[in-house]
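My current task is to audit a protein record that another person submitted. My question to you is simply how this chain folds and whether the C-alpha cells agree. This is what I was given:
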Amino acid sequence: MPRKAARRPLDRLRAICLALPEAVEKETWDLPTFRVRDKIFAMAIIGETPLALWCKAPRGSQAILVGADAKRFFVPPYVGHKGWVGMRLGNGVDWREVAVLVTRSYRLIAPKRIAALLGERSVAGETEAAIRGRGGRGRAARASGRAISARRRASG
C-alpha cells in the first residue's frame, strides 16, 4: 500500500494550532499567526529555512530549551525578551514536542475559562489526532517540564 506523502511542516503546525479550542489563524506581518480571542499564542516564521515556530514559554523554559539544544531552539527577536522561544521545524522534528510547546503557549495566552477546556491533558485530544506521530515528548521539552515542576514544588 503506498504511503501518504508527508504533509508540509506549515500544514502540520496549522493542524496542531487550530485543534485547540477557539483557535484561529490570522495573517499578520505577512506571517501566519495563531490566536485565541485575538491574542497570539504561536507564529509560523515562513521564509526561513527550515520553517520556524515562535511561541510563548513558561518562565525559565526559554533558557532551558535553548541551553539543551541551540540547533533547534533559539531566542526569537522582538518577543524573546518576553519569554517566547523559537523552534526550527526541520527534518526529523518531533511533532509531539511541537504540540506540547504550542499547547503550553496556548495555556499561557488563552483566557482561563477557555484554557480550562483542555483539562489536565498536556496535549489536546484533537491535537493528538492532528499529529499522528509516534514517541513521547522530546528531550528538551521533558527537561523543561521537569525544571518547571521542580520550581513549582520548591515555591509551593
